[in-house]
Amino acid sequence: MARSVGRIFSGFRCFGSLPFGNPLLKTQCSGVLFRTTSERTLVHVLPKIFPRKPRDFSLPNSSWGKEMMELYNHYNRLSKEATEGQEDHGEEWTRLPSYNRTLKYATGGAYLSKIIQSKARLFTRNIRDPGAAFEYVLFFRQDKLKCVCIFQAGHLLEGPPGHVHGGAIATMIDTVTGTHASLLSAPVMTANLNVNYRSPIPLGSTVLIESILDKEDGRKMYISCRVTSTDGSKLHTEATALFLSISVSNLLRR
Fold first, then answer.
1. What is this enzyme's EC (predicted)?
2. How many alpha carbons lie under 13 Å from residue 59 in its C-beta half-sphere?
3. DSSP state of 232
4. Lowest CB count within 10 Å: 51, 63, 127, 223, which one?
5. Is the dihedral of CA 11, 15, 21, 24 positive or negative?
6. Region for residue 9 given its phi and psi (left: phi exceeds 0; alpha: psi -120 to 50; beta: otherwise)
7. Which residues are catalytic?
8. β-pairing, 206-217 with 146-153?
């Protein structure tokens, strides 16, 4: 039975269906050959034990303020689904779903996340209380040269009294630029991140985080990032990042 489970996990562990390089975040793994009745039974039982669809943290919840909802609706109106069959309105954006484990992007990942390191959680999605920490949603432009994030900072992210901790800001910059790099290539790792803080961000406020691809050079992706007020009038933080494309085997090594 253990060997059967191992073969099934090997089939599920098709990391090509992770979000890296896939704008729709949906690819099909190659078929898994179930050789025994026990294997087929396990595959049929798993969906009944665990939920089929993981929670998407990028969807609106009761904690979202007016500014966040207005920006969300703005970019949502520019999404492919909303503009399909209508006149060209210029830039076209796609919302990225967001889960509390990267594993859940993979086919069958909702099941495997209950078995493989089941207590692990994505750092920015490990608090279930809406509005307490990182509330954000990402959209990417169709040409993948630009990515925007609407970020609302919760009360648990305090650094200086009444303002967001610098580490939390850097975390969001790394999250946005890293997601952007992942859309352009296979799995990536942060090689360098330079952050310049210009103006503090008040707790509870909403800001825009814009990520722009500056250059690609082989395995290297150079990305710049700006954190501004929602109307763009105030610059809070600016950064540059370097990401390296890595092979899937590097992620599986221990």
1. 3.1.2.2
2. 4
3. S
4. 51
5. positive
6. alpha
7. 174
8. antiparallel
What pLDDT is recorded for position 21? 44
Best CA proximity match to 42, nearest among 3, 16, 80: 3
Q: Are 219 and 50 in contact (CB under 8 A)?
A: no
- Whether 186 shows a pLDDT value over 80: the answer reads no
DSSP string, 25-52: ---PPPPP---SHHHHHHHHHHHHHS-S
Q: Which of 227, 220, 233, 249 is nearest to 241 (CA)?
A: 220
- What does residue 226 show for φ and ψ, rounded to 5 degrees? -130, 135
The CATH H-level (homologous superfamily) assignment of domain 66-80+93-252 is Hotdog Thioesterase (3.10.129.10)
The radius of gyration computed from the CA coordinates of the chain, to the nearest angstrom, equals 20
Are 59 and 139 in contact by the 8 Å Cβ rule? The answer is no
| Range among 10-14, 39-43, 216-220 rated most confident | 216-220
Contact 37, 48 (CB under 8 A): no
Round to whole Å and give the CA distance between 243 and 16. Answer: 19
Give residue 153's region: left, alpha or beta (phi > 0; psi -120 to 50).
beta
- In the structure encoding, which two tokens stand for residue 214, read together? 């500056």
Paired tokens of 6: 């191992």
Domain boundaries, the chain: 66-80+93-252
Q: Is pLDDT above 50 for 30?
A: no
Whether 253 shows a pLDDT value over 50: the answer reads yes
